[in-house]
Design goal:
The complex is a heterodimer of chains A (305) and B (93). Chain A is mostly helical and 305 residues long. Chain A is 67% helix and 2% strand. In chain A, strands 1-2 form a two-stranded antiparallel ribbon. Chain B has a domain at 6-61: Ubiquitin-like (UB roll), CATH 3.10.20. Chain B contains two helices and three strands, in the order ββαβα. A three-stranded antiparallel beta sheet of chain B has the order 2-1-3, covered by helices on one side. The chains are: A mainly alpha (305), B alpha+beta (93). Chains A and B meet through helix 4, helix 7 and helix 13 of A and strand 2 and helix 1 of B.
Chain lengths: 305, 93
């Protein structure tokens, strides 16, 4: 092992941060770029399923909240793209990789939002799961990523709470509204559990990522934590989580629960989910339709100098 | 078409504090960088003042040379107050 490698390993082992211009193994750099870019793409694509409800929000209050939330997601994407650029990645290149399908984003955003209760359930379950995943990333060994995650986690709390409050409001409404909440919960529960990734036994990169401290807990640990957090929230809300195997296990001090359909997960990740084509096409359209604006701004800036 | 240039963003969180680096963004020119920085980094009153500077205008020390670069201060312990022995019974020093 060279001195450079030793320094890197020692820094990580002492729980100190790796900073942009430090020496780092090529594989660490590549893994960080892939992980952060995938996270950034998820935030940007994640604007779509909720964004389509902005014009149809049932009140000005809900519209303002949803607009702020979708704007935050754009912001989160930008913090994260900014972190990848400290590793030598280029923004345009990452966008092109996304719209050409060469880089992935979270599979959750390939499901459709069918009614306004979905906006609430996304805040409650999807953002709740995201928080479980993201809080440990505030201690990622890569400094710029850890700092971006601290900002993001602060803002995610609003996302989850607005969703839960929206659902409480609907649960206090008509039978029809309560049915909408239950229906949305049924549809989003399993995809939310999939957000933590495949079971540990099928997650070959976990060990290396834990050693590099870019991952702090295994997929199954985080999934368990999410289920344990969510069960009492579902009870308070008055909805049923659609898992017949879900029950408290006194011995383990945790809930037992069923496994999501991992074949479906593989299909959605592989591009065959309900909305994959639509999401990427929309992102491509926004990028290409915006080209003249980017060019005009650049031309204007050049004239001023 | 080339990518918009990269800017580094510094925020003063409140009066009395230094500007602190918070991240970067792309913008066509300085004014746009300032506006984008406001929208991106101060959506919740995180700042009372923003600096933006083109990333390529920053000269930074190299982490590879950090030991020799910072060495001159390493052996000057007499710059620290604890270097000086003062009897316990001398007050206010």
């Amino acid at each position: 092992m060279t001195t450079l490698e030793q320094d890197f390993e020692a820094t990580v082992a002492h729980d100190q941060r790796i900073e942009p211009r430090d020496w780092m193994p090529d594989a660490y750099r590549a893994t960080m770029i892939r992980q952060i870019a995938q996270h950034a793409h998820s935030e940007i694509i994640g604007m779509q399923p909720e964004g389509i409800w902005i014009t149809r929000a049932p009140s000005l209050r809900r519209k303002a909240i949803l607009l702020a939330k979708v704007q935050d997601e754009a912001g989160h994407g930008l913090y994260l793209y900014s972190a990848t650029e400290t590793l030598g990645a280029e923004r345009t290149d990452l966008t092109e990789r996304l719209i050409e399908g060469r880089q992935k984003y979270s599979s959750i955003f390939n499901y459709p939002t069918l009614n306004f209760a979905d906006v609430g359930v996304i805040g409650w379950l999807v953002d709740g799961a995201a928080i479980c995943n993201q809080v440990p990333l505030c201690r990622s060994s890569y400094g710029p990523y850890a700092r971006a995650m601290i900002r993001i986690c602060k803002e995610e709390s609003f996302h989850q709470r607005q969703g839960y409050e929206l659902l409480m409001t609907m649960m206090g409404g008509t039978d029809g509204q309560r049915e909408m909440v239950q229906d949305a919960t049924n549809r989003w529960w399993w995809p939310s559990l999939m957000m933590f990734g495949p079971p540990d036994a099928d997650s070959p990169n976990t060990a290396q990522s834990m050693r590099w401290r870019i991952k702090r807990h295994t997929n199954d640990e985080l999934r368990q934590r999410f289920v344990d957090m969510t069960v009492p929230q579902a009870q308070a809300l008055g909805v049923t989580l659609p898992d017949p195997e879900l029950r408290w296990n006194e011995e383990r001090g945790a809930h037992d629960f069923g496994q999501p359909d991992w074949d479906e997960f593989k299909q959605v990740v592989g591009g065959a989910g309900p909305c994959n084509t639509e999401r990427v096409a929309q992102r491509r359209r926004a990028h290409e339709d915006g080209a003249w604006v980017r060019d005009a701004a650049m031309a204007h800036a050049e004239k001023q100098t | 078409m080339n990518e918009w240039p990269l800017y580094e963003v510094f925020l003063r969180g409140k009066r009395g504090l230094n500007h602190v680096h918070v991240g970067s963004l792309h913008a066509a020119d300085d004014d746009m960088a300032l506006h984008n920085a406001r929208d991106l980094y101060t959506r919740r009153n995180e700042g009372v003042s923003i600096w933006v500077v083109r990333s390529n205008a920053i000269t930074a020390s190299s982490p590879d040379e950090k030991d020799p670069f910072f060495a001159p201060s390493g052996d000057k312990v007499y710059r620290h107050p604890t270097f000086y022995k003062i009897p316990e019974d001398v007050p206010h020093i």
